[in-house]
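Data's thin. Show one?
=====
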Amino acid sequence: KSEGKKGLSLTPEQSEAAKRIVGCLKFLTMVNANRYRVAQIGAASLLIPLYEECMDTLLRRNAQTVLANIAMLAENGQVLLDSKLPEEFLVPVPMRLSKDEVNQLTIEFPTSTLRESFNQLAKERSEAALAQVEQLVKKL
Protein backbone atom coordinates (compact mmCIF):
# COMPACT_ATOMS: atom_id res chain seq x y z
CA LYS A 1 0.00 0.00 0.00
CA SER A 2 1.56 3.29 -0.98
CA GLU A 3 1.49 6.37 1.25
CA GLY A 4 -1.21 8.94 0.51
CA LYS A 5 -3.19 6.70 -1.84
CA LYS A 6 -6.40 4.93 -1.04
CA GLY A 7 -6.54 1.26 -1.95
CA LEU A 8 -4.04 -1.49 -2.58
CA SER A 9 -1.33 -0.61 -5.10
CA LEU A 10 -0.26 -3.44 -7.38
CA THR A 11 1.87 -3.27 -10.49
CA PRO A 12 0.12 -4.44 -13.67
CA GLU A 13 2.15 -7.66 -13.54
CA GLN A 14 1.20 -8.29 -9.90
CA SER A 15 -2.43 -7.57 -10.64
CA GLU A 16 -2.47 -9.95 -13.62
CA ALA A 17 -0.78 -12.74 -11.62
CA ALA A 18 -3.13 -12.22 -8.67
CA LYS A 19 -6.17 -12.30 -10.98
CA ARG A 20 -5.08 -15.66 -12.37
CA ILE A 21 -4.32 -17.16 -8.97
CA VAL A 22 -7.48 -15.91 -7.28
CA GLY A 23 -9.53 -16.88 -10.33
CA CYS A 24 -8.26 -20.46 -10.01
CA LEU A 25 -9.02 -20.44 -6.28
CA LYS A 26 -12.55 -19.30 -7.07
CA PHE A 27 -13.19 -22.49 -9.04
CA LEU A 28 -11.23 -24.76 -6.68
CA THR A 29 -13.32 -23.59 -3.72
CA MET A 30 -16.52 -24.86 -5.28
CA VAL A 31 -15.68 -28.22 -3.62
CA ASN A 32 -15.96 -28.63 0.17
CA ALA A 33 -12.60 -30.37 0.61
CA ASN A 34 -10.88 -27.57 -1.29
CA ARG A 35 -12.71 -24.97 0.79
CA TYR A 36 -11.08 -26.55 3.83
CA ARG A 37 -7.66 -26.80 2.18
CA VAL A 38 -7.64 -23.17 1.04
CA ALA A 39 -8.73 -21.90 4.46
CA GLN A 40 -6.17 -24.02 6.31
CA ILE A 41 -3.23 -22.62 4.32
CA GLY A 42 -4.14 -19.12 5.46
CA ALA A 43 -5.58 -17.79 2.22
CA ALA A 44 -8.29 -15.75 3.98
CA SER A 45 -5.80 -13.37 5.58
CA LEU A 46 -4.27 -12.75 2.13
CA LEU A 47 -7.61 -12.38 0.34
CA ILE A 48 -9.20 -9.94 2.79
CA PRO A 49 -6.94 -7.00 1.76
CA LEU A 50 -7.65 -7.77 -1.91
CA TYR A 51 -11.38 -7.75 -1.20
CA GLU A 52 -11.29 -4.59 0.91
CA GLU A 53 -8.66 -2.46 -0.83
CA CYS A 54 -7.94 -3.63 -4.38
CA MET A 55 -8.81 -1.18 -7.15
CA ASP A 56 -9.15 -3.92 -9.80
CA THR A 57 -12.83 -4.93 -9.92
CA LEU A 58 -12.29 -8.47 -11.24
CA LEU A 59 -9.62 -9.24 -8.65
CA ARG A 60 -11.76 -7.79 -5.85
CA ARG A 61 -14.83 -9.81 -6.91
CA ASN A 62 -12.84 -13.02 -7.27
CA ALA A 63 -11.38 -12.51 -3.78
CA GLN A 64 -14.92 -11.89 -2.49
CA THR A 65 -16.15 -15.13 -4.10
CA VAL A 66 -13.31 -17.21 -2.63
CA LEU A 67 -13.95 -15.74 0.84
CA ALA A 68 -17.68 -16.48 0.50
CA ASN A 69 -16.94 -20.04 -0.62
CA ILE A 70 -14.62 -20.85 2.27
CA ALA A 71 -17.02 -19.19 4.73
CA MET A 72 -19.73 -21.70 3.73
CA LEU A 73 -17.91 -24.53 5.50
CA ALA A 74 -18.50 -24.88 9.25
CA GLU A 75 -15.08 -26.47 9.82
CA ASN A 76 -13.41 -23.24 8.69
CA GLY A 77 -15.04 -21.18 11.44
CA GLN A 78 -12.04 -20.74 13.74
CA VAL A 79 -9.61 -20.04 10.92
CA LEU A 80 -11.94 -17.37 9.56
CA LEU A 81 -12.40 -15.78 12.98
CA ASP A 82 -8.63 -15.72 13.46
CA SER A 83 -8.18 -13.96 10.11
CA LYS A 84 -10.86 -11.39 11.06
CA LEU A 85 -13.18 -12.15 8.17
CA PRO A 86 -15.70 -9.30 7.65
CA GLU A 87 -19.09 -10.15 9.12
CA GLU A 88 -20.89 -9.93 5.77
CA PHE A 89 -19.36 -13.33 4.97
CA LEU A 90 -20.82 -15.08 8.01
CA VAL A 91 -23.21 -17.85 6.99
CA PRO A 92 -26.21 -18.62 9.25
CA VAL A 93 -26.28 -22.34 8.39
CA PRO A 94 -22.87 -23.45 7.11
CA MET A 95 -22.30 -26.76 5.33
CA ARG A 96 -20.29 -29.59 6.88
CA LEU A 97 -17.73 -31.97 5.47
CA SER A 98 -18.90 -35.50 4.67
CA LYS A 99 -17.37 -38.54 6.37
CA ASP A 100 -15.35 -39.34 3.22
CA GLU A 101 -14.04 -35.76 3.03
CA VAL A 102 -13.06 -35.88 6.70
CA ASN A 103 -11.22 -39.17 6.18
CA GLN A 104 -9.26 -37.75 3.22
CA LEU A 105 -8.46 -34.44 4.91
CA THR A 106 -7.22 -36.06 8.12
CA ILE A 107 -4.56 -37.76 5.98
CA GLU A 108 -3.53 -34.40 4.51
CA PHE A 109 -3.83 -32.52 7.81
CA PRO A 110 -2.81 -35.08 10.47
CA THR A 111 -2.72 -32.56 13.34
CA SER A 112 -6.24 -31.40 12.63
CA THR A 113 -9.13 -32.15 14.99
CA LEU A 114 -11.49 -32.87 12.09
CA ARG A 115 -12.14 -36.51 12.96
CA GLU A 116 -12.89 -35.74 16.61
CA SER A 117 -15.20 -32.88 15.62
CA PHE A 118 -16.97 -35.06 13.08
CA ASN A 119 -17.45 -37.90 15.59
CA GLN A 120 -18.72 -35.48 18.25
CA LEU A 121 -21.23 -33.99 15.81
CA ALA A 122 -22.41 -37.47 14.77
CA LYS A 123 -22.84 -38.42 18.44
CA GLU A 124 -24.83 -35.24 19.17
CA ARG A 125 -27.06 -35.83 16.16
CA SER A 126 -27.80 -39.43 17.11
CA GLU A 127 -28.55 -38.39 20.70
CA ALA A 128 -30.91 -35.69 19.42
CA ALA A 129 -32.61 -38.19 17.09
CA LEU A 130 -32.99 -40.67 19.97
CA ALA A 131 -34.55 -37.95 22.15
CA GLN A 132 -37.04 -37.15 19.37
CA VAL A 133 -37.99 -40.82 19.04
CA GLU A 134 -38.49 -41.05 22.82
CA GLN A 135 -40.76 -37.99 22.73
CA LEU A 136 -42.84 -39.55 19.94
CA VAL A 137 -43.14 -42.83 21.85
CA LYS A 138 -44.36 -40.96 24.96
CA LYS A 139 -47.04 -39.23 22.90
CA LEU A 140 -48.30 -42.55 21.57
